[in-house]
Design goal:
By secondary structure, this protein is an alpha+beta fold. 25% of the residues lie in helices and 21% in strands. It has eight helices and 13 strands. The protein is globular, with a radius of gyration of 18 Å.
């Protein structure tokens, strides 16, 4: 295994390490993507970009219909890739939705999001993880502060910070229904977390993450570096948030009447495929970290609209 640039869970003390990888991988081959130089610079500085209504109202209508279909299909299904809220039977997450051979598979290849991911990562991309996060009204639980990369590196063997998450808002995200919160500039630092990784940690961490989370002092330091700023990814359905794999983020519980649902596609550079986990443990299951039959995505311009038209004509 190559040198571990980002060691974590190897002692009792947290450490703050400087990032070793570029944030934006500028490559002339992908320079004609949809993002302007100003937007790339903003992503480089903050670690995220929000685009309001990237998908139109007709597409949002289809998204909501497919969201309901997915919830109904999985409501009573007991499977590893369907995560329930702790203490209830409410769905928290459904994983690997880009392999549904239907709407979400088409959505995952849509050129509006794939081309942006390629431009940021400077290469062709594939999906290493996908999921829908449901946060029902009144009882949707929080997602505690974390860097996705810390888990993907330690438990999945992602070598470098060369991945970007694309979060598509499926239901309106308000200030008060548990929207994603992000710390600007936090992606420039890596929080090496204390403790060790329990065996089969994913079985509990997907309900409530307690391993690989930053300590209070490190979190305070990150927020201080951001000038006390914590941003919230709010916006109408159809909006899209791109955030860097090491950006510190989380969300509060939802005690409002309004549910919050987002679909996540994690685009990884084809040059950053998963290796053996840096924890030394067995890799997590395929539905959490794709390793099989990895191929670059061919961006598709028409497939989502064609799928939408087919459903509309039923």
């Amino acid at each position: 295994m190559a040198v571990d640039l980002y060691p974590s869970r190897q002692g009792e003390q947290a450490k703050i390490l400087r990032r070793q990888d570029p944030v934006v991988h500028r490559n002339p081959e992908f320079s004609d993507g949809p993002l302007s130089e100003q937007e790339l610079t903003k992503f480089e500085e903050n670690g995220y970009l929000m685009f309001e209504k990237l998908f139109n109202d007709d597409e949002v209508s289809i998204m909501k219909s497919e969201l309901k279909r997915t919830m109904d299909f999985n409501r009573d299904r007991e499977a590893d890739d369907v995560i329930k809220e702790p203490g209830s039977n409410e769905i928290r997450s459904v994983f690997e939705i880009h392999k549904d051979s239907g709407f979400f598979q088409a959505l995952s290849k849509n050129e509006r999001i794939v081309n942006a991911a390629q431009q940021i990562l400077g290469s062709q991309v594939y999906i290493t993880q996908s999921r829908i996060n449901f946060k029902p009204g009144f009882k949707g639980k929080e997602f505690y502060w974390h860097s996705d990369f810390e888990t993907w590196h330690t438990e999945d063997g992602m070598p470098n910070m060369r991945a970007v998450s694309c979060s598509i808002i499926l239901t309106d995200n308000y200030e008060y229904n548990g929207p994603l919160m992000l710390i600007p500039g936090s992606h420039k630092w890596y929080i090496s977390c204390p403790g060790e990784t329990p065996e089969n940690n994913y079985k509990s961490s997907l309900q409530k993450q307690e391993t690989g989370v930053p300590d209070n002092n490190s979190m305070t330091w990150l927020v201080d570096q951001a000038g006390g700023r914590i941003d919230r990814a709010t916006g109408p359905a159809g909006s899209v948030l791109f955030f860097e794999c090491n950006t510190m983020h989380g969300s509060a519980g939802n005690i409002s009447p309004y549910p919050r649902s987002n679909v996540f596609f994690v685009f990884n550079s084809i040059n950053n495929k998963l290796t053996d986990p840096y924890s030394g443990q067995t890799p997590r299951p395929e539905f959490l970290a794709n390793r099989e039959d990895i191929r670059p995505i061919t961006p598709n311009k028409d497939r989502l609209q064609n799928f939408s038209n087919r459903i509309t004509k039923r």
